[in-house]
UniProtKB/TrEMBL annotation, chain A:
<keyword id="KW-0813">Transport</keyword>
<keyword id="KW-1003">Cell membrane</keyword>
<dbReference type="GO" id="GO:0015833">
    <property type="term" value="P:peptide transport"/>
</dbReference>
<keyword id="KW-0472">Membrane</keyword>
<dbReference type="GO" id="GO:0016887">
    <property type="term" value="F:ATP hydrolysis activity"/>
</dbReference>
<keyword id="KW-0547">Nucleotide-binding</keyword>
<dbReference type="InterPro" id="IPR050388">
    <property type="entry name" value="ABC_Ni/Peptide_Import"/>
</dbReference>
<comment type="similarity">
    <text>Belongs to the ABC transporter superfamily.</text>
</comment>
<dbReference type="Pfam" id="PF08352">
    <property type="entry name" value="oligo_HPY"/>
</dbReference>
From TrEMBL, chain B:
<dbReference type="Pfam" id="PF00528">
    <property type="entry name" value="BPD_transp_1"/>
</dbReference>
<keyword id="KW-0813">Transport</keyword>
<feature type="transmembrane region" description="Helical">
    <location>
        <begin position="136"/>
        <end position="164"/>
    </location>
</feature>
<keyword id="KW-0472">Membrane</keyword>
<comment type="similarity">
    <text>Belongs to the binding-protein-dependent transport system permease family. OppBC subfamily.</text>
</comment>
<keyword id="KW-1133">Transmembrane helix</keyword>
<feature type="transmembrane region" description="Helical">
    <location>
        <begin position="206"/>
        <end position="224"/>
    </location>
</feature>
<feature type="transmembrane region" description="Helical">
    <location>
        <begin position="306"/>
        <end position="328"/>
    </location>
</feature>
<dbReference type="GO" id="GO:0005886">
    <property type="term" value="C:plasma membrane"/>
</dbReference>
Length: 331, 342
């Protein structure tokens, strides 16, 4: 069953220079129990999409979508209160800088307690505090923190970023969400902690069937843990599909460049040879090219590329390119 | 860890007091006239007393011995005599100082009770008309000259409407013995038959000066609470708390208020010296028998021992409050504790 089903999501920002379309007709769907990766350079609109799903976008943004379904309910049609209620119940989110997302003047115990909803507790109000404490310790154990006593009695500044992120995950899974959105959860962490957190997230996915939307700008680090990938460029969805197939046979030049820029994906690469990269750099939001936004940087761009290509489909593999690589027309 | 910090604060305190006493001591020599008179407050010492005083004040010796003698006298409570009344300066101070403390305390109380909620309201409704009105009034109150504002209030409430008396602490009808020096507790402790009437009268006397004096700290509180709250409301942890599904008021009380009050508390310590200055002005206008009125009288009478004593007391108060606020800020703010420990 489709948990999240978004068709042609468009996010526009009104500025003094006119309307800026930061996210252009992006489609995204997520099945129950799946980990989907959302990859793109910074500024490609990954975080905006996440914020739009959680409903914490600024007032200045205009959200349009042909379909914005959560468990079969169109969220955009609902009044604000109900929207908040559904999202607050089902979706949890963790962010880039965990230590800034924890209240600096409150103990971890307090912050963890308040994220446990009352309806998950058994027993009456008189032993609610004890129940919450037990639950908090269990949550910390679940995310792999063994010294629960010292962590519960710490302030965020006394903990490392990695432990903070684990606490954030503990707070996020306290309400048993159906979907966890992780917005670049490991950017501030060192390599060993990164791997630890990814393993934690994928074990939560396997054990509890929790869906995960993993947002990152590093293809190599999330490729191992995701079932499906969506690649964004400048607010346009360029390609999406099963991770393994997409990595083995990318259709879009941008995905191809992304894969080729990572040495890990190319075992036969000669030592000290130059890594492949597209010429130029990502355009600013005020000067977006018309049509396919990769156009000016694309090695095989032609005249047709001034029109935005439609999303084409080959089995479960979607791509939007007029001239896909290695693509054979189905007979 | 926290003791380390407290000891460091105490060191700072002792250095500041050292500088302060040095300054107060040097005033005795810098003021025009005989240093002996400036220190002792005895305007014409006779021939018997003169050598005793010179010996006591070490005036024949160098400045260092004089300073040590001065410190000893300050610690022993011998602050000299007031040139005007020939009463001990310390005794006069003990009569007027509590009155000032009382006034400042009530003004601060008003500023807390009014300023914090109004500041919060102005932050939450920042773009709403109510928020704008509060901000405008706060700016207006912040920039009002207090002497003009006090006169205006007297004209309106005392002379025009006749609600409150224009001056003084309590009507001369009531005889209240001074126990603590603070009027309201003294009335309660006095055990007089007319204590209820006296209490009412004292409160009526208190209203106007306390309100006028509270104008400045209240507007400061509103402005700082508003700014701090707007700043805190942008932080990631507030968004996280919202994402947890907490309601707006829960987020406000559990995460917003505590973080926003920390910078406000620190500002309050910094603004305290301004508050004391303003208290002196309002004491003058309302004839409030506090240290400000007494000190201003002493200045116009060239009463040097009294000026010296008043300076010591007021500066010590400001320094103590500053350091106290700093310590409190550190106690309540885990982040500051981290920095305090290096």
């Amino acid at each position: 069953m489709l948990l999240l089903d978004i068709r042609n999501l468009t996010l526009e920002l009104e500025t003094s220079q006119g309307l800026i379309r930061a996210v252009d007709r992006v489609s995204l769907s997520l099945r129950e129990g799946e980990i989907r990766g959302l990859v793109g350079e910074s500024g490609s609109g990954k975080s905006l999409i996440a914020k739009a799903i959680v409903g914490v976008l600024n007032q200045r943004w205009r959200i349009k979508a042909d379909r914005f379904h959560w468990c079969g309910v169109d969220l955009l049609q609902l009044p604000y209160d109900q929207q908040r209620k559904i999202i607050g119940r089902d979706i949890a989110m963790i962010y880039q800088e965990p230590s800034k997302c924890l209240d600096p003047t409150a103990l971890i115990a307090e912050q963890l307690h308040e994220s446990i909803p009352n309806q998950l507790l058994k027993g009456g109000w008189w032993n609610r505090a004890r129940e919450k404490r037990k639950k908090a310790i269990a949550l910390l154990h679940k995310v792999g923190i063994k010294e629960h006593q010292s962590v519960l009695e710490s302030y965020p500044y006394q903990l490392s970023e990695g432990v903070c992120q684990k606490v954030m995950i503990a707070m996020a899974i306290a309400k048993n969400p159906k979907l966890l959105i992780a917005d670049e959860p490991t950017t501030a962490l060192e390599a060993s902690t990164q791997a630890q957190l990814f393993r934690l997230i994928s074990s939560l996915n396997q054990l509890k069937g929790m869906s995960v939307l993993l947002i990152s700008n590093e293809l190599d680090s999330i490729a191992r843990y995701t079932h499906h990938l969506s690649v964004l460029y400048c607010g346009q969805l360029v390609e999406s599909g099963e991770t393994a197939k997409l990595l083995a046979q990318p259709f879009h030049p941008y995905t191809n460049a992304l894969i080729k820029s990572v040495p890990e994906f190319q075992p036969e690469l000669a030592p000290k040879s130059q890594l492949y990269a597209l010429p130029g750099s990502i355009p600013t939001l005020q000067h977006l090219p018309v049509g396919c936004r990769l156009g000016p940087r694309c090695p095989n761009a032609r005249k047709e590329c001034v029109h935005t290509p439609a999303l084409e489909r080959k089995q479960h593999h979607f791509f939007s390119c007029h001239f896909p690589l290695q693509y054979k027309e189905p007979q | 860890m926290i003791w380390h910090y407290l000891v460091r604060r105490l060191f700072l305190l002792s250095f500041v007091f050292f500088a302060l006493t040095c300054f107060a001591f040097s005033l005795g020599h810098l003021f025009p006239g005989d240093p002996l008179v400036n220190f002792s407050g005895i305007s014409q010492p006779d021939d018997e007393l003169l050598p005793i005083l010179v010996q006591q004040y070490q005036l024949d010796n160098g400045y260092l011995q004089q300073y040590i003698a001065f410190l000893q006298r300050i610690l022993q409570g011998d602050w000299g005599l007031s040139l005007a009344s020939q009463q001990p300066v310390l005794y006069e101070l003990s009569q007027v100082f509590p009155a000032t403390l009382e006034l400042v305390a009530y003004a601060l109380l008003i500023s807390f009770v009014l300023g914090v909620p109004l500041g919060l309201l102005a932050a939450i409704k920042a773009s709403h008309w109510s928020g704008r009105v509060i901000s405008t009034i706060a700016l207006l109150g912040y920039s009002l000259p207090i002497f003009w504002w006090a006169l205006l209030m007297i004209m309106l409430f005392s002379i025009g409407l006749g609600w409150f008396p224009t001056s003084g602490r309590i009507s001369v009808l009531y005889e209240i013995p001074s126990v603590t020096g603070f009027m309201l507790p003294d009335i309660l402790l006095s055990g007089q038959t007319y204590w209820q009437a006296a209490l009412q009268d004292a409160i009526r006397h208190l209203w106007l000066p306390a309100f006028v004096l509270a104008t400045y700290p209240t507007t400061v509180m509103i402005r700082f609470t508003r700014d701090a709250m707007l700043n805190v409301w942008q932080q990631s942890y507030i968004k996280t708390a919202r994402a947890k599904g907490l309601s707006r008021s829960q987020v406000l009380y559990r995460h917003g208020l505590r973080n926003a009050m920390l910078p406000v508390m620190r500002q309050l310590g910094l603004q305290f010296s301004t508050l004391v200055t303003l208290a002196m002005i309002s004491e003058l206008i309302f004839s409030w028998p506090g240290i400000g009125l007494w000190l201003l009288d002493s200045i116009s009478q060239r009463n040097y021992p009294a000026i010296q004593g008043g300076l010591l007391v007021i500066s010590s108060l400001v320094i103590l409050v500053n350091i106290l606020m700093d310590v409190l800020h550190t106690l309540f703010n885990p982040l500051a504790r981290k920095q305090a420990n290096g």
